[in-house]
Amino acid sequence: MKKLPVAFALILAASTISTHVTAFGLPKIPGLPVGGSGTAVDVDGFMTKASETNKLFQDSALTLALAVSDKDKVAELESLQTALAATADPKEKDALVKQISEKSTAALNAASEQQEAAAARISTAKDEQRDKYIKAATNFALGALQATELAPAGQSAIASLQSNPLQATKLLGLKRTMSDVTGIVGNSTLALTKVPGIFRAAKIPLTLPTSGKGTTSVAN
Q1: Nearest to 153 by CA among 179, 176, 178
Q2: What's the total number of domains in the chain?
Q3: In a domain, 12, yes or no
Q4: Tens digits of residue pLDDT in 55-72
Q5: Which of these, 63, 76, 64, 102, lies nearest to 186 by C-alpha position?
Q6: pLDDT tier at 91 (50, 70, 90 boundaries)?
Q7: pLDDT by residue (tens digit) across 172-202?
Q8: SS3 string of the chain?
Q9: Cα–Cα distance list, 7 to 10, 12, 13, 20 (Å)
Q10: Residue 27, pLDDT above cutoff 60
Q11: Which phi-psi region, left, alpha or beta, contains residue 215 (left: φ > 0; alpha: ψ -120 to 50)?
Q12: In sequence order, what are the residues at sequence separation of 6 or more whose Cβ sits closer than 8 angstroms to the Cβ of residue 35?
């Protein structure tokens, strides 16, 4: 057998070592893209930010719904809040949180269709209460903008986990989180146009953020 040239032998040896390193699954260097697809996806970072955005949006929606809705809708929301505070069952809590979220956005949509009545209700708010509503409206818009900016990263995160069968459990949680994000994006018009319209009708000054990088207002 003819001897291989030294240079070729070295290349072959390096290739063999590289194959074995990959086969034994040594840790990837943090920050490197997976599979040469571009920028690395910070899945955990996305889920944390998305959860914070969802909470900001839903808390703000509830505050605003209680401010502009009629007595029946307010009573229904308050009843759900009481039930949520009284239960310790995780599944029941999740179900109640979902109900509160859905009914809050439905109430706000209804209020926007009866803008004059909704504006009359919120215009009676004084001092700290009015400030609380302004901050809630600001955060509501901020949450919508953040969700819109987060959505592409969420799609990339899902794609990165779908290629790894060992991440099936995390993928399920990620898809639920992404569903929250897309739900918020779907309500962007409510947050950025309809609710501000109620404030304008009530002659309450409201300055909205222009990007998701704005500062969260702390409601009283």
Answers
A1: 178
A2: 1
A3: no
A4: 999 999 999 999 999 999
A5: 102
A6: very high
A7: 999 999 999 999 999 999 999 999 999 999 9
A8: CCCCCHHHHHHHHHHHHHHHHHHCCCCCCCCCCCCCCCCCCCHHHHHHHHHHHHHHHHHHHHHHHHHHCCHHHHHHHHHHHHHHHHCCCHHHHHHHHHHHHHHHHHHHHHHHHCHHHHHHHHHCCCHHHHHHHHHHHHHHHHHHHHHHHHHHHHHHHHHHHHCCHHHHHHHHHHHHHHHHHHHHHHCHHHHHHHHHHHHHHCCCCCCCCCCCCCCCCCCC
A9: 5, 9, 10, 20
A10: no
A11: beta
A12: 163
Cα 91 from Cα 71, distance rounded (Å): 29
Residue with tokens 């302004």: 134
Nearest alpha carbon to residue 50 among 143, 172, 156: 143
Residue 40, amino acid: A
Residue 29 domain flag: no
- pLDDT score of 28: 32
In a domain? residue 175: yes
pLDDT at 122: 95
Q: Does residue 161 lie in a domain region?
A: yes
Asked if residue 216 has pLDDT above 90, the reply is no
Question: For residues 216 and 205, which has the higher predicted lDDT (pLDDT)?
Answer: 205
pLDDT of residue 80: 97
- The pLDDT score that the predictor gives to residue 29 is 26
What average pLDDT does range 76-92 have in this prediction? 96
The parent domain of residue 188 ranges over: 41-201
